[in-house]
Amino acid sequence: MSGTVTAVSSSGEYSFTKGNRDRITLLAGLGVEGDVHAGVTVKHRSRVAQDPTRPNLRQVHLIHEELFTEVGAEGFEVKPGDLGENITTRGIDLLGLPVGTRLHLGDEAVVEVTGLRNPCLQIDTFQAGLLKQVVGRDEAGNLVRKAGIMSVVVEGGVVLPGDTITVRLPAEPHRPLDKV
């Protein structure tokens, strides 16, 4: 299973959106070099307020570009970096990956999937009504989070738009993703 990096984004300041870059550098055990969410311990403000000593399982945020097409059909315009992701992908069912999946990004970098992004109300501040598009219910009434996945950096390296993403599933039994 493989896909493509379509965009890379980062921000050195707390902001909802992240600017697109020509490249980002992933640092093992930390996250995206220069990004406000990089670090060994939690950096998201809501998590820091709860317990600043917890490990940072949200070092790198990935979103599938196909989501932009899906919400576009409902009248929303979303581009890479708009929802705060670091890496925008195409061709991989990110939400269907199990915990522990390793994504090889380009020639060097490897991230390990830790869980789902838990979308917050800031999404509606960005575009009113968008939160309902990225959080919903399936036919059985189960909560479905579509705003991407979170990961930690296992091996550092440069990531560029156009890089190939190779998926390496963990040993079975697979654990489905849950919010982190």
Automatic annotation (TrEMBL):
Listed Pfam families: MOSC
Task: Enumerate the transmembrane spans.
Answer: none
Q: Which Gene3D superfamilies does the record match to this protein?
A: PK beta-barrel domain-like (2.40.33.20)
Q: Where is the MOSC domain?
A: 19-168
The identity of this protein, by name, is MOSC domain-containing protein
| Species in which this protein is naturally found | Streptomyces xantholiticus
